[in-house]
Design a protein that fits this description.
This protein is of the alpha/beta class. It has helices at residues 13-21, 39-45, 52-57, 96-101, 109-124, 135-141, 161-170, 184-189, 204-211, 216-228, 250-260, 288-304, and strands at 25-27, 33-35, 64-68, 146-149, 174-179, 194-198, 234-241, 264-269, 309-315, 320-325. It has one domain (19-328): Alpha-Beta Barrel (TIM Barrel). Strands 1-2-3-4-5-6-7-8-10-9 form a ten-stranded mixed β-sheet.
Length: 338
C-alpha cells in the first residue's frame, strides 16, 4: 500500500492550518488522517463525567481515540460543524475499487493506527501532572480501548477502511464507525464493533436540502446493508434534528427505520457550533423537549406498525434521545464495549 502521489488540498491549506490551531493533529505521511481529543475526554480523565455515548453504550471517554482516516467528504451538510467546504470531493462512485484507481496517495492502516495511538498518548500527557486528574483514569487513558472513526470527513472514502478496522481490533480496541451511508459497497465489507449511519431526512427532497448531494439511492442501499448486519455488528441510525428543515414527516422516518431494522436509533439536536454557524441560524437548534417530542412521534409510528422500538434513555445536556429495538434481544440499554 505504498502512496502513489501526494494528496493535494488545493485551497484547503489555510483551513488545514486552522484545523491544526483548533486541536486537530494530522498523522501519517500524506496527512489525510487526524486525531483530536474532545471535551468529554478532559472531563472523564478528571472524573467529572462521561459523554452520552458512555451513558448509552458504555464507552469510557478517556479511553477513546477520536479519529478519521479521511478528512474529505462527498456531502455538504448544512448542519455539519466541520469546514467541509474546504475538503469536499465529488466522485462518480464511492467504491473502494474506484478510489484506488485515483492518483491519490493513501497511508496504510498500520501507519494510521500507530500514528493515532502515539499522538493520543502525547496529547493526554499534559494531564499527568494536574491535581485535577484522576490517577486511575489517566493510567487507563494511556491504554486506549476504543477508536471512534468519526472525527471529520467521511471514513468510507478511505479505500482501506476494512483493514483499518481490523488493525484497531488487532490492538485490542473496539471500533465505532460513523458514515453518511453514501458508499454501501464499503459497508458490505466492514465489521466494526458498532456501525452508525447518519440519516437526516425522511425523503429525497429534504435530503438534498440538508446534504446538498445526490446519493439518496445509495443511502437506501446502505439501510439494507444495516439490516443484513443484524447480529454481527451493533447498528445505529442517528437523526440530527434541524428546526424548520427536517423535523417533519415522522412516518417517512419510520418507514426508513423499519427498512434498516437497526438495534438503536438516536434522535439528536443540531448544535449551533463551528462552521455550521455560517450556514444556519441559532433558531435551527431545537430544545431538548422538542427533540424528545419528535423522537416520541417517530417511536409511536414504529409501534403502530408492530415494530418493537421504544424510547429507553436520554441525555438532556447533549439533547439526544435513544430509541431501542427490543426485538434485538436488548431489554433496555446495550452491554458495554469494555
Amino acid at each position: 500500500m505504498e502512496p502513489k502521489a501526494t494528496l493535494s488540498y488545493d485551497e484547503g491549506e489555510e483551513t488545514k492550518r486552522t484545523l491544526e490551531r483548533q486541536g486537530y493533529h494530522f498523522v501519517g505521511t500524506q496527512k489525510h488522517s487526524a486525531v483530536k481529543t474532545c471535551l468529554w475526554l478532559w472531563k472523564s480523565i478528571r472524573g467529572e463525567g462521561n459523554c452520552y455515548k458512555g451513558k448509552f453504550y458504555g464507552i469510557s471517554a478517556h479511553r477513546c481515540v477520536q479519529m478519521t482516516p479521511s478528512i474529505f467528504c462527498n456531502q455538504r451538510c448544512v448542519h455539519c460543524w466541520r469546514p467541509l467546504e474546504a475538503f469536499n470531493i465529488n466522485i462518480d462512485t464511492g467504491t473502494e475499487t474506484e478510489l484506488k484507481k485515483q492518483s491519490i496517495g493513501w497511508d496504510s492502516p498500520e501507519e494510521i493506527v500507530e500514528g493515532c495511538i502515539k499522538e493520543q498518548k502525547r496529547l493526554i500527557s499534559g494531564f499527568k501532572g494536574s491535581p485535577k486528574t484522576n490517577k486511575d483514569a489517566f493510567a487507563e487513558a494511556e491504554v486506549p480501548k476504543h477508536a471512534a472513526i468519526s472525527l471529520i470527513g467521511e471514513p468510507t472514502l478511505y479505500p482501506y477502511l476494512k483493514e483499518l478496522i481490523q488493525e484497531f481490533h488487532s490492538q485490542g480496541m473496539t471500533t465505532f464507525v460513523v458514515t453518511n451511508g453514501t458508499n454501501p459497497e464499503v459497508l458490505r465489507e466492514i465489521s466494526p464493533s458498532q456501525l452508525y449511519l447518519s440519516l437526516n431526512a425522511p425523503d429525497e427532497a429534504i435530503y438534498k436540502k440538508v446534504a446538498h448531494a445526490d446519493y439518496w439511492s445509495r443511502i437506501n442501499e446502505s439501510l439494507d446493508e444495516l439490516r443484513r448486519k443484524k447480529g454481527r455488528t451493533r447498528t445505529v441510525i442517528r437523526i440530527t434534528c434541524i428546526e424548520e428543515l427536517n423535523m417533519v414527516n415522522p412516518d417517512g422516518y419510520a418507514e426508513l427505520l423499519k427498512r434498516a431494522n437497526t438495534d438503536f436509533v438516536e434522535v439528536k439536536a443540531y448544535m449551533h457550533i463551528g462552521y455550521s454557524r455560517k450556514r444556519l441560524s441559532r433558531n435551527a437548534m431545537p430544545a431538548h423537549s422538542r427533540v424528545k417530542e419528535f423522537a416520541g412521534e417517530i417511536a409511536d409510528r414504529l409501534a403502530s406498525s408492530d415494530s418493537e422500538y421504544k424510547i429507553v434513555d436520554e441525555s438532556e445536556i447533549s439533547r439526544v434521545v435513544l430509541i431501542s429495538n427490543l426485538s434485538s434481544g436488548k431489554k433496555a440499554l446495550p452491554t458495554t464495549f469494555y
